[in-house]
Design brief:
- The chain is α+β, with helices and mostly antiparallel strands.
- It has 2 domains: about 1-85, no CATH class; about 85-225, Alpha-Beta Plaits (2-Layer Sandwich), CATH 3.30.70.
- Helices cover about 40% and strands about 25% of the residues.
- The chain has helices at about 5-20, 25-35, 65-85, 100-105, 110-130, 185-200; strands at about 45, 55-60, 90-95, 140-145, 155-160, 165, 170-175, 220-225.
- The strands form 3 sheets. Strands 4-5-3-8 form a 4-stranded antiparallel sheet. Strands 1-2 form a two-stranded antiparallel sheet. It has a two-stranded antiparallel ribbon with strand order 6-7.
- The two termini are about 40 Å apart.
- The relative contact order is 0.14.
């Protein structure tokens, strides 16, 4: 069964129950996915000059949440990322947040997602530039996941980081000292927490009380495969 069929079948009762909390972006996603590759989305004419055959094909919606459209785009994105890989070891770093912050992020998604990216990137770059750990400028690829595998609202940031960086002063590549993890996870989690809570204190997020719980802030660093 395709997602579009589920939307057609259950959209009316779903909106009747949750219309008060649906975001405009979510309504646009439902509209786009339900129209995808149907006459409602328009069509394109394909003609073969050799045999004279002409066919009409419905257009796809192109929405980032549509499983029909994103397989091809995802493959192209992965190919572009592979072209950027360096012949070094890579690490996957994951930053998660406590459940107490999820409601705050839900009501301030655009600024809070930007804040999550900012806090994660600054944390890794601060560790990378510190001579105690590396002393080099590190590149990285960051990806936001807003839901868990069970589709629960669980925001976290995945960061793919090469095991090293560029020392601009000496104009050399510096390799990380460890092979099984990038930096100390507890130290990264502490810095990430501080940077995120500092940003939450900004005016856009005023009026929300944050209850801190030290054990809920997690930064996990996992060694990945070596790129060739």
């Amino acid at each position: 069964m395709e997602l579009a069929n589920i939307i057609h079948h259950y959209r009316a009762p779903f909106e009747a129950k949750y219309s008060h909390c649906l975001l405009p972006s979510q309504r646009r996603a439902l509209d786009a996915i339900s129209r995808c590759r149907t006459p409602a989305s328009g069509s394109v004419q394909v003609h073969c000059d050799a045999c004279g055959n002409t066919e009409w094909h419905p257009c796809s919606c192109g929405h980032r949440s549509c499983p029909r459209c994103q397989n091809h785009e995802s493959s192209q994105w992965l190919d572009r990322q592979r072209e950027k890989l360096l012949p070094v070891d890579y690490f996957l770093v994951t930053f998660t947040i406590p459940s107490e912050l999820r409601e705050l992020i839900w009501y301030h998604q655009r600024p809070m997602y930007q804040t999550l990216f900012k806090a994660a990137i600054q944390t890794l770059r601060n560790f990378g530039m510190n001579p105690k750990y590396l002393g080099a400028d590190m590149g990285m690829t960051t990806v936001l996941h807003t839901h868990s595998r069970r589709l629960a609202y669980h925001q976290h940031i995945h960061v793919v980081v090469p095991g090293g960086g560029v020392d601009h002063k000496q104009r050399v590549w510096k390799q990380t000292r460890r092979n099984h993890y990038l930096f100390n996870a507890f130290a990264m989690a502490k810095m990430f927490r501080g940077k995120l809570l500092h940003e939450i204190a900004m005016p856009a997020c005023k009026g929300h009380r944050v209850r801190q719980r030290n054990g809920s802030w997690i930064a996990v660093s996992v060694a990945g495969a070596r790129a060739h």
